[in-house]
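Protocol check, entry for the methods section draft. Step 1: assemble the input record (protein sequence plus ligand SMILES). Step 2: submit for complex structure prediction. Step 3: store the structure tokens unaltered in the notebook. Ligand used here: NAP. Step 1 record:
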Amino acid sequence: MKAMVLVGADKPLEYKEVDKPTLAPGEVLVQLKAAALNRRDYWISIGKYAGIKYPTILGSDGAGVVVEAADGAGAGWIGKEVIINPGQNFGDHADFQGPDFKILGLPDDGTLAEYVKVKAEDLYAKPSHLTFEQAAAIPLAALTAYRAFFTKGRAKSGDKVLVVGAGAGTGTYAVQFAVAAGCQVFVTSGTSEKIDRARQLGAAAGVNYKAQDWAEELKHLSGGFDVVIDSALGKDFAKIPDICNPGARIVFFGATAGAIPELNPRTIFSKQLQLLGTMMGSPDDFTNMLKLVNDHQIVPIVDEVFSLAETQKAIDKMGNSSQFGKLVISIS
Ligand SMILES: NC(=O)c1ccc[n+]([C@@H]2O[C@H](COP(=O)([O-])OP(=O)(O)OC[C@H]3O[C@@H](n4cnc5c(N)ncnc54)[C@H](OP(=O)(O)O)[C@@H]3O)[C@@H](O)[C@H]2O)c1
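Step 3, stored output:
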């Protein structure tokens, strides 16, 4: 089969012929119609990720059709249109993943290929209102945004929420989900065009995080936030507690712009703020996220579709953050 393979440090991904996966008990073979990128693929491709090994087929997100099952565990899925939950072996505790947790697309071969093997338990029916390319854009980013907002952030209708970096794959889902849940949504983004796009998705207003007074402007526009979702962090994170309401939850799962700076502890304890880390999500989060997508007929924001052979071009685009939403790879 054809696949995009990570072949070595500081080398572009290679489009090459590799062996089709062979199934172990409990596994199914999915013929992929589309895959999608996450920042994780970019970090791995530039060597900034733990546990990198060569060769590996990258890709955590995929949608396709089940063509083979090792045994009865997956037999009922043959011929079905599916998406794959890339968070494998989450474990028994709902609050955090267990020691066997792993993410599809490193260490195991991922979705940037014509076929991928996964456990039957990681399959979910593809939402019928979506194309394969739209559905492939869902798994990792939508799961992470859903858990950040609802499971950890406890966002509810009427809350004022802030999505930092609304143009991110995770950011566009955060905006769509919060709007669907009846929250009043504010955003930051790196360009006025992206802020306009977020407003078209239902955000009330936004500011450019490159502006000197972005925090004051947001406080003025919103009055203060009940839930903040931040996947960028970096030095600007120090201002977030200042623009939160008492009892607010600040949830983070990435550090695109760098580490957490020095924070004013007095602001955090006097407002009784909660700083919450989160990581992808449990199978229950995945099920609930898909229910929200189906109930509200949410259509993922696909920035651009590339062919499998063009994957490196898509990764380079992610590297300069010029996308709004998801970068999708069409496979067959
Ligand atoms: N722990 C987990 O489970 C988990 C899961 C998913 C993602 N992540 C992490 O979360 C982050 C986002 O992932 P993704 O796949 O959604 O990334 P992505 O699609 O590549 O988006 C990255 C976005 O970061 C925003 N950004 C860059 N610099 C910023 C700054 N200084 N201030 C605010 N925003 C800034 C940009 O937003 P604009 O386009 O709006 O300017 C950019 O589009 C990554 O660091 C990723 O590794 C972690």
